[in-house]
From TrEMBL, chain A:
A Pfam match: bPH_2
InterPro entries: UCP026631, YdbS-like_PH
Residue ranges of the region described as Disordered: 151-170
Protein name: PH domain-containing protein
Organism per entry: Tigheibacillus jepli
TrEMBL record, chain B:
UniProt xrefs under Pfam families: bPH_2
InterPro entries in alphabetical order: YdbS-like_PH
UniProt key word Ribosomal protein: no
UniProt entry keywords in alphabetical sequence: Membrane, Transmembrane, Transmembrane helix
Domain YdbS-like PH: 72-148
Annotated TM spans: 21-41, 47-67
Taxonomic source organism: Tigheibacillus jepli
Name of the protein in question: PH domain-containing protein
Length: 486, 159
């Protein structure tokens, strides 16, 4: 039933139109502005030409694009044909498909439709195929058709009963994000920095349209009303940025549900756009458990799955969020329920004591140079306040110590574990069979201290790079053993 | 604990590296000459081109004379039945093991300089990135490529 060519829902035209307008926005605006300025006696003619151009460049391609877009399943392949002047054929083998990611935005919801992104390993960051608008039942049938055959094939090899029909399967485990946890996730997301960056970026764009008098006027008033007022303004801006960061997180993780059906995980979340990601367990390359800097004091972690087919528009790249907020002590049970086979308990070895020196010195030296520069400059201009920069040194030591304290590694017969800290503490658990290459890296300083860095790579969506994880300054003999194992 | 990889890359790698680095050095020297001309024609003080030239000479010695020798001396590789073992690096030494099972494909590559000296690079690609064994003799490179291809296929069948 899926093997004759099919069209997308006509609503896809709207999305194609939106896409082409988005891409052509700047030339479009430039032309309109130009036309408005020049519209004299022949104003109507210009508008006529503009309308024709608009139809030719934006509306017609959307309609034709929709008419010429066909997809179907044949010979174990998802086949897509599209293109107005040049016909593009894209055939994707079912067993190459890493993740299927379905989402519903507000417009989709009104018509009972959804968008489907299909990802394979390799290729660029873009999804290999995007079906912009299809009926939800159609999406379910297509997903079932894609998984059915490829799963059957692998099941024959392993002699295990497997999922046949996605929608009629029994649910083996299910976990919902409670409203309380959703709020905590929002409050501790630490995305405020991102929001401030965006605000800054928008401001730098808008700035050029604001007349200088406005600035002068505002600054005069600000200074006239005293320092308290400025402080209040800054606090207010920070508060609003933080609030929008919280809102952003809440919108994305709204009613987050994780389900395991047999050998497959599904996540659904989002308020405005409800996204659904399907991830077969065997496509998980590694698990990443992150103790966010703001969450660690409260004992909360986030669990990510590294998958070779990413989630397309996700900024995290190949990472898929398995669960946004989890008590650290619940992690073993979580792993048992949702990723059976992953170790819930491991021998964790810290890095040797002598590594502390290397962890600290790496941060202390640059920080000491900065501090010295500030103190010297401060001597001339703002003595004695510049001397406060000396306080940077204990802070640097504390950061270095935290890095040292977090660094660890662990092994079981089928898994390897790496733990390290940048700002957040990250624990990576990799099945041995997913490790692509193992590297021992040693600097001259490390060699003197009999230390070495342990690196490993796993498959990644970005062709030719892979994803690299590393822990610095382990005992050299340990690293040697880790990389030389068969 | 296994011994370190034992095979060396071709001696002529040194020549190829020295020529490529030499080109960089020549460009830097042209910049130095240009600086002298500028200093002669404008009020720019003479010590700027002098110091720059000294730095260029030092850099030339390091990247053309010293570093290639050490790099060649440090480069070791060995292709075993189950894995490819690579060891290289001057400031940071890297020892990488690529399990044969993970090898997706293997190529030989040759730029104009390598071709002039009858050398080729063997490039091994896995899903987690690619690794190169630079500058083997053409014969060795092709032999190695074919051997890795066969070994990779065999181990895949076992899996």
């Amino acid at each position: 039933m899926m093997n004759e060519p099919r069209r997308l829902h006509p609503l896809a035209m709207v999305f194609m139109f939106g896409e082409s307008v988005k891409n052509g926005l700047i030339p479009l605006l430039a032309v309109i502005f130009g036309a408005v300025r020049k519209s004299g006696a022949y104003g109507w003619l210009i508008w006529l030409v503009l309308s024709v151009l608009f139809v030719v460049f934006f509306i017609l391609p959307s309609v034709l694009g929709w008419l010429r877009y066909h997809y179907w399943v044949e010979d174990g392949e998802l086949r897509i044909e599209h293109g107005i002047f040049f016909k593009h054929h894209r055939y994707i083998r079912k067993e190459r498909i890493q993740t299927i990611n379905r989402s519903v935005n507000v417009l989709h919801r009104m018509f009972g439709l959804e968008k489907m992104n299909i990802e394979t390993a390799g290729g660029s960051g873009e999804p290999e195929a995007t079906l912009a608008a299809i009926k939800i039942e159609e999406g379910q049938r297509l997903e079932a058709a894609i998984y059915q055959k490829s799963e059957n094939k692998s099941n024959e090899k392993k002699h295990e009963p497997g999922p046949q029909q996605l929608e009629n399967e029994t649910v083996d485990a299910e976990k919902h994000l409670s409203t309380k946890d959703l709020l905590i996730a929002g409050l501790t997301s630490g995305k405020i920095g991102v929001v401030l960056l965006i605000v800054g970026a928008i401001y730098s764009q808008v700035q050029q349209f604001i007349p200088d008098e406005f600035y002068e006027d505002t600054f005069h008033r600000l200074f006239a009303s005293g320092i308290q007022f400025i402080v209040v303004i800054i606090v207010l801006i920070a508060f609003l940025a933080w609030l929008s960061a919280v809102m952003g997180t809440v919108l994305v993780y709204w009613r987050f549900i994780l389900v395991r059906k047999g050998k497959e995980l599904q996540t659904v979340s989002g308020l405005l756009e409800r996204r659904r990601i399907v991830l077969p367990l065997h496509r998980i390359q590694a698990l990443r458990i992150v103790d966010g800097i703001l969450r660690q004091p409260f004992g909360f972690v986030t669990v990510y799955a590294e998958s070779a087919g990413g989630t397309g528009n996700d900024k995290e790249g190949d990472s898929i969020i398995l669960f946004p907020l989890l008590k650290r002590k619940d992690v073993p049970r979580f792993l048992e329920e949702f990723v059976p086979g992953y170790p819930t308990d491991m021998d964790v070895s810290p890095v040797p004591k002598r590594a502390l020196y290397r962890y600290v010195i790496r941060i202390l030296v640059p920080m000491a140079i900065v501090a010295a520069a500030i103190v010297i400059m401060g001597y001339f201009w703002f003595w004695p306040w510049g001397a406060l920069a000396v306080l940077l040194l204990p802070i640097a030591y504390a950061i270095g110590y935290a890095h040292y304290h977090s660094a660890a590694w662990g092994t079981t017969d089928r898994f390897r574990m790496l733990r390290f800290r940048t700002l957040n503490r990250t624990t990576v658990i990799v099945p041995r069979r997913n490790i692509q290459t193992r590297t021992m890296r040693q600097s001259w300083f490390q060699k003197r201290g009999r230390l070495a860095t342990y690196q490993l790579t796993v498959m990644s969506k970005m062709a030719g790079t892979g994803k690299k994880f590393q822990v610095k300054h382990l005992d050299k003999a340990d690293v040697q053993e880790l990389i030389e194992e068969q | 604990m296994r011994s370190q990889p034992k095979d060396r890359i071709h001696q002529d790698a040194l020549k190829v590296w020295r020529i490529t680095e030499g080109i960089v050095a020549i460009i830097a020297m042209l910049v130095a000459i240009a600086l002298f001309v500028i200093a002669g024609l404008t009020p720019m003080p003479m010590w700027i081109p002098i110091i720059f030239t000294m730095l260029v000479l030092l850099m030339t010695y390091v990247i053309v004379v010293w570093a290639p020798r050490i790099r060649w001396y440090r480069w070791r590789y060995e292709v075993r039945e189950n894995e490819i073992d690579l060891l290289h690096g001057i400031w940071w030494t890297h020892r990488t093991l690529v399990p044969m099972v993970k090898v997706q494909h293997v190529d030989t590559e040759q730029g104009p300089l390598l071709r002039r000296y009858g050398l080729a690079t063997v490039k091994v690609t896995t899903a987690g990135g690619s690794h190169e064994i630079p500058a083997l003799s053409m014969e060795d490179a092709e032999h190695l490529r074919d051997r890795i291809a066969v070994l990779a296929r065999v181990t895949e069948d076992d899996e």
